[in-house]
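#lab-general

N.A. 3:47 PM
ok so I finally got the sequence cleaned up, no stray characters, all 94 residues accounted for. can someone with queue access submit it? mine expired

B.Y. 3:52 PM
send it over

N.A. 3:53 PM
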Amino acid sequence: MQTSNQRRAESSFPRLAEIFDVSVDELMQVKTVAKENEEHAGIVQTALKGLALAMGVAVVVLSIMEQIETKAAIGMLGMGLACLAVTQLSKKEN
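B.Y. 4:20 PM
back already:
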C-alpha cells in the first residue's frame, strides 16, 4: 500500500521532467552526473599539479636571476606544496 508521500513523489517526476524539458528516464539518470564529476575532478587534479610545478619552476628561475626575495619565494613554494597536498588528500578519499 502506497502512502500519500509516495504517490506525491511519483506524480512530481513527470512534472519535473516537463519543467526541465527532458524525459522522465533522462531525469532519473544519476550515472551521467557522477561521470561528469569524475571528469571535473581530474581536471582540477591536473590544474593543481600544474600550478605546483609552475611555482617551483618560477622560484628556481627567479632565484637564478636574483629577482626574488626569500619571503616571496617561500610563499610561492608553500602554495605549490599546498596544491600537491590537496591532490594527495583527494586521491585518498576516492
